[in-house]
């Protein structure tokens, strides 16, 4: 059947709005809040390999790589196992050291990205076990993996990935939680909290869509003529800053850089002047105070501060020129919320600048040649 925009002006907007449903679909049947139970059958299939693995390597490209970076933080925190995140195009050519003790997680929306596929084939030949986190059922990566878990986001048509990204994050969260449960590296109480927080996400994303849209549109109009944008975040919000910058570049053609908030002192801060919008991903977490001081550094140099914060954050209201609010969540889960306003911001900037947001120039939905 034809895939339609069902009343939305663009596939990208439709896909952003589908996220309360697609996020639910990615954990449906895999999460039992009452029993604090997790089911990920693909993971059971490689249980022995995983429990024995001294490290996990995540291989991906583009937006999927950002999901992988967040998973590095999550898995190391919850499962106490070493995680490396690799760009498939680099991993494939740099003669990496791999053996049968390695478990590789491949993250790919299409399951057809050439660099990712070949990187995995090479690793498999060297004995590694491949776990695929893929959206397209029956795709090449899904078929070559030893085990895996589909993301269940449904077909994604917009070239810039949105709902596939949040679905990848959900599955990677489930992976981390389940592995932590198997290894006993997180307390039952902590797991229970995280399961509940994950379960609340669809409703919380809906809240953002219902309550922040006009605010985000206004911010998009205000900053649409900027030449550059900076996106900053620390900890779990750093991968989200990278993803925010990538989205904006892809569909507005405005140059944008994502950076770890503290690392900006070592370069990007030189760009800050009264014209530069700086988006802080600053939801509540243990780094929050540090992020605030990074905001002050930008403000002292007259940068235009835009802050994505948790509900009830008065500090940000005082500091930032514009504030976007997301519901409160656990720090391990809130990246799933923080990315949604950034998707919308780039969408509306792209619309203001009359970019073909569903099919931006020079980009392909799936890069099947290297
Ligand atoms: C292309 C797409 C991106 C995607 C990347 C990786 O660049 O435009 O949206 O993140 O490929 O694709 P994959 O299908 O492997 O996730």
**Structural class of the secondary structure composition?**
alpha/beta
Can you count the helices? Answer: 15
Number of β-strand runs: 12
Q: Biggest sheet: strands, sense, closure?
A: 5 strands, parallel
- Taking pLDDT < 50 over at least 5 consecutive residues as the criterion, the unreliable ranges are none
Main location: cytoplasm
Catalytic activity: D-fructose 6-phosphate + L-glutamine = D-glucosamine 6-phosphate + L-glutamate
EC number: 2.6.1.16
Domain SIS: 46-185, 219-360
Notes on the structure:
It contains 15 helices and twelve strands. It has 370 residues and is of the alpha/beta class. The chain is 47% helix and 17% strand. The protein starts with 10 loop residues before the first helix and ends in an 18-residue tail after the last helix. It has helices at 11-17, 19-27, 41-45, 47-52, 62-79, 88-91, 114-125, 140-144, 163-183, 188-211, 213-223, 238-252, 288-300, 314-319, 335-352, and strands at 31-32, 37-38, 55-60, 82-87, 103-108, 129-134, 147-150, 228-233, 255-260, 277-282, 304-310, 322-326. The chain is globular. Strand 11, helix 14 (314-319) and strand 12 form a beta-alpha-beta unit. Bound molecules: 6-O-phosphono-alpha-D-glucopyranose. Residues 61-64, 108-110, 113, 116, 159-161, 363-367 line the site of 6-O-phosphono-alpha-D-glucopyranose. It catalyses: D-fructose 6-phosphate + L-glutamine = D-glucosamine 6-phosphate + L-glutamate. This is Glutamine--fructose-6-phosphate aminotransferase [isomerizing].
